[in-house]
Amino acid sequence: MVSYSSIRAFGALLQRFSNGGAGVLIKNSSSFSPKSSWLSLYEDKLSVPVRTIQTFSPVCMGRRSSKIAGRKGAQDAKKAKLYSKIGKEVVSAVKRDGPNPASNTMLAAVIEKAKELDVPKEIVDRNIKRASEKGQEAYIEKFYEVYGFGGVSMIIEVLTDKINRSVAAVREVVKDCGGKMADPGSVMFKFRRARVVNVKATETDKDQLLTIALDTGAEDVIEPPVDEDDTEEDRSESYYKIVTSTENYSAILEKLREEGISFETDNGFEMLPMTYIEVDDEAMDLNKELMSQLLELDDVDAVYMDQK
Q1: How are beta strands 180-181 and 239-244 bridged, if at all?
Q2: Which of 32, 67, 126, 243 could serve as 220's disulfide partner, Cβ 3.0–4.6 Å?
Q3: What pLDDT digit, counting tens, does each position of 269-306 carry?
């Protein structure tokens, strides 16, 4: 039921326009034009000067915006995950055979891998000490499989000292983000495990990388995915992937150093999709958010997906 005060206010507003007073029209640029509002009818009919205030709806991130936003802090986050993973592996090795690499071949191998991946020595030393602390358990490697959005599949790599804690945390994030946990084996067959060296596209060209790959016994060189909406900035942030075996990994790194080509190592391995899936902008943003939330979990070391 309309109140008397509301009727008076409405009448006063109409009278103000009838008398030639200046009005205020508030419009949303993304939803309608001035001609679509009832106030505009008075503007047209009475030639009343109307002061227009523009308002704007929140901007939704499209494919390119998502790419640019995703780069911010990505390298620091990747490095932090690498350090965390190496630290966990050090703890597990020490728990198994002691803190002396001379007698602990597993620890010696982890230390060698840390050097190969340019992990600071203090990270290794700190975790050797940490392994001796009371109550610290060894870490166990686990993989969880997830269905994302738009038909995309994901593999979550976990290295944890508390399996129940890690699986509960992963399940909670997946549920909250609208994804779905997959049964073991439902997603894994879509990926292959390999050692990978990532080389920025601006550092070299495919022919040079193919030559290096042939000389060092690499298995493949994967070109960066190309999108028709990519700008020069997008292409400058794309990477070639040199795929190789563990035995040839160090040789490839050494050859790249000799050629003066900058590169980024993997975290010990990567799960590479057998095929890639094209998705729309909405699915891309949802998958990006799900991946971001999963990577914030301490137990999660990496998330792999087959989204193009």
Answers
A1: unpaired
A2: 243
A3: 889 999 999 999 999 999 999 999 999 998 998 899 99
